From TrEMBL:
Residues 81-108 form a coiled coil. Residues 125-145 are annotated as: Disordered. It comes from the Bacteria. GO terms for molecular function: copper ion binding; DNA binding; DNA-binding transcription factor activity. InterPro entries: CueR, DNA-bd_dom_put_sf, MerR-type_HTH_dom, MerR_fam, Tscrpt_reg_MerR_DNA-bd. GO terms for cellular component: cytoplasm. It is found in: Cytoplasm. Keywords: Coiled coil, Cytoplasm, DNA-binding, Plasmid, Transcription, Transcription regulation. The lineage of its organism: Bacteria, Pseudomonadati, Pseudomonadota, Alphaproteobacteria, Hyphomicrobiales. Pfam families: MerR, MerR-DNA-bind. This is Cu(I)-responsive transcriptional regulator. GO terms for biological process: positive regulation of DNA-templated transcription. The keyword Transcription regulation applies.
Amino acid sequence: MNIGEAARASGVSAKMIRYYEQSGLIPKAGRSAAGYRDYSTTDVHMLRFVRRSRDLGFSMAEIEELLQLWRDRSRQSADVKRIALARIADLRRRIQEMEEMAATLEHLASCCSGDKRPDCPILADLEQGEAGKPRRSRGAIDSAP
């Protein structure tokens, strides 16, 4: 099947298929007599594997490792589990960071009167940047201390 058919069958865009081939994540497809890429059902199965892995948040390096394990029938499932548990830990860390960001923004929004006055604690906090840097009271660039 050609790249368009493989894209439809796998749910991976033709552009991403080319990228995965170019980056070495998947082997380059065979070529037809006319020079077009020719994908097998095995190739489509691999592309679905990659797509599902991306959907679950695995990095390209992790997907490469998972593909190697997938192809290796003498693999140990502990190796696969280690990668999955590391992904879970990373996702939980990122969720925690996002929860903290949301809580901070909720607090800042609750402190902002949202009226016609120029004072804005949200802008003042953004202006502060890293902890310990001077905080400007109005949140305006022209009111530097």
